[in-house]
User: What shape does this take?
Amino acid sequence: MVRKYDFLVIGSGIAGMSFALKVAGKGKVAILCKTGLEEANTYFAQGGIASVTARSDNFEKHIEDTLICGDGICDVAVVEKVVREAPGQIAELVGWGVNFDRDADGNFDLHKEGGHSEARILHHKDNTGAEIQESLVRAVRANPDIDIFEQHFAIEILTQHHLGAIVKHTTPNIECYGAYVLNILTNHVLTFLSKVTMIATGGIGNIYQTTTNPTIATGDGIAMVYRAKGLVEDMEFIQFHPTALFNPKERPSFLITEAMRGYGAVLRTQKGVEFMPKYDSRSSLAPRDIVARAIDNELKISGDDFVYLDVTHKDAEQTKEHFPNIYKKCLELGIDITKEYIPVAPAEHYLCGGIKVDMDARTTINRLYAAGECSRTGLHGANRLASNSLIEAVVYADAAAKHALGLISSLGWKEDIPMWDDEGTSLNEEMVLITQSAKEVGQIMNAYVGIVRSNLRLKRAHDRLEILYKETEGLFQRSVLSKEICELRNIINTGYLVIKFALQRKESRGLHYTIDYPKKNEHLSLY
Ligand code: FAD
Ligand code: SIN
Assistant: This one.
C-alpha cells in the first residue's frame, strides 16, 4: 500500500512533534512512531530545559558554559543560535500547554545543573519530560492536519537507490522520497511517499547493556541515513550519566537527576568518603564527563559496583517537594532518600553526534531533515551541557520547519518507487538468534566502548561486532521482517559507527577518553 504526505515525520519525541505542529496547516503531515506516541526519550527527561530567563543571567554566560563543556569543538555559530533562540522556543512550548514550575512571583523556578554558571533550567518538578511529551501529544492529537501512525517502524528511507541507481557516500544530490515502513500489527510493509521527510528518531542507548534510555532508543534513524549514504559525525562522543540508580534488575536504568547535585547532594564511596573534591574544584557539580570518569575510577579502585549519592543533609520536606518521583521510586525499593544514601553508577545516557545537519537542519541528503538526539548540529562538541538537548531539539525543529515551508510548493512525489520486495524470505522461527545477538552487542559495547577506552578494547569490539554483523545481515536477507531483526541490524550499524569514530580520534577530548592518547590535541581545537 502507498500513502502520500507532504511531510513525513519519523519519531514522536519533542523534535518530531514540535516539527509536525509547526508545519501542520501548510500540508498533510504523517507522524510515525514504533510503539505508542508517548514512549520516547523525551518522556523520561527529568532535570529540565536550559534557557536564559533570569535577570541575573545572560546569553553570553549560557554560550560560554556550552563552549567550555564542549571542550573546544563546538560550532560557535550553532551555540549562539540555540542559546539566543531558546527563550522564543520556550514561549512556544508554553503556548502548546507545557506547564513549567514558577515561583511565588510568577517567574520560572530555575534549577542549576553541572557546568552551568547560573540557575537556568526550567522544569516541571522532576518529570519535565513527561510534562512536555504529554502536552505535545495532546496538541498533535487535536490537530486535524496530522495523521498518527503508532506501531509503525521505519525500515529504510527511499532514495535513487530504490530506482536502481548506484548511490555512494560521494554521490552528489542524493534525494529522499519517503520511507518503507513496517506496520508492526499487520506485518505489512507500506510505502510512505513524502515531499519532505524529518528524521527525529532519538538516541542510541540500547546499543549498551546499561542505559537510561527507553527501549525505543536503538539508533534507527542514524543507521538508516548511514545506509542511505548520508553523513554521520561525532559518534564517539557518548555521554554516560554519572548517577543512574544502581538496580541491576531494572532496564532502562532509572535516572537520579543531576539537579539533585545542583540542589546540594554529594557523591560518596561505599565507605562514606566524599571523593569528588580530589578530581575537580567544582566537586560533585563538575561536568558529567569528569564526574562519570571519577566514579569509574573509584569503582575500579574499590572493586565496588556503585557509589552513593547523599542528600540526607538537606531539608527532608524540601527534598520531597523538589524530587517527588525520585523519592517515591527509591522508597518503593526500600530507600528513604531523606535518611539513606542512594546507590548510583554511570549508564549510557546521550549521544552528542549523529546525522550531520546544517543550521537549517538539512542533512546531506536533499529533502531530508533531522532534529533532536539523532542529529549532530555542532552544539555539543565533545560533551553536552546538561539540559541543552531538549532546547536544541525544538530550535532545530523550528529551523527545519522554516526551511521546509519555503521549499514545499516546489516539490512533488516520486511515483515510480517499487513496493517492498520480500520474495524468498521465510518466518524466523528462532527469536533467540536475534535476542541473544542484541544482548551480545550490549555486552561488547559496555565492556570495550565505555567511559575509558583503548585501541585494544576498541579493536576487540570491532572484531566481535563484525561477526554479529555478518550473521545478522544473512538473517535479515532470509527472514520475514520483524521489528526485532530491524532493530538488531540498527544497533549493530550504530555500534560500528561509534567504534569507527572512536578509533579515528587519536586524542582524549570531552567524552572520548582513551588511555592510548590521554591528552587533548590542541591543534584540533576550533577556538
Ligand atoms: P525521542 O524523544 O527519543 O523520540 C524518538 C521517537 O522516534 C520515538 O517516538 C520513537 O518511537 C521514534 N522512533 C525511533 N525509531 C523509529 C523507527 N525506526 N520508526 C518509527 N519511529 C521510530 N535532556 C535535556 O535537555 N534535559 C533533561 O532533563 C534530560 N533528561 C533526560 C533523562 C533521561 C532519563 C533521558 C533518557 C534523557 C534525558 N535527556 C534530557 C535527553 C533528552 O530527553 C533527549 O535527548 C530528547 O528527549 C530526544 O528527543 P527526540 O525528539 O530527539 O527523540
Ligand atoms: C538530568 O536530569 O540529570 C538529565 C539532564 C540531561 O540529561 O540534560
User: Anything to note?
Assistant: The longest helix spans residues 455-478. The two ends are 51 Å apart (CA to CA). Residues 449 and 458 are 6 Å apart (CA to CA).
